[in-house]
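Amino Acid Chain and Its Fold in Token Form
===========================================
Purpose: to set a sequence beside its fold so the mapping can be learned.
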Amino acid sequence: MRRHSLAMTLGMLGIAAASFAAPAKAREAWASGNLEKFDPTAKSVVLKQGTHEMTFTLGADARLMQGTKTLQASDLTGDVGRRVKVRYTLDGATKVADRIEVQGNAPVSAANTAAKK
């Protein structure tokens, strides 16, 4: 009886240790819209989806891409207006971007359209 009790106690301790050993991985999500603003000092990106805006903080190891080309954070200042996809996780209430994909060509501005006429 004593062996059975000891084995049961050790088994329950093993289960409890296993459940605390691996922290839960943060759930990833994607958002897409137009790049509204990039703040290089705060390393934050504002994405606009219609009238809704979402603000993301760039993670320390964030990958910035345009197709197969790797971008630097400073490149985002010239990409305002472009369509982007952002992969992020939540850290409390902060959305932390670990991947930003800039899509398409340069945004069409009114000045560019008028120059073509």
Observations:
- The longest helix spans residues 2-21.
- The mean pLDDT is 81.
- The beta strands are 29-39, 44-49, 52-66, 69-70, 83-91, 94-103.
- The longest strand covers residues 52-66.
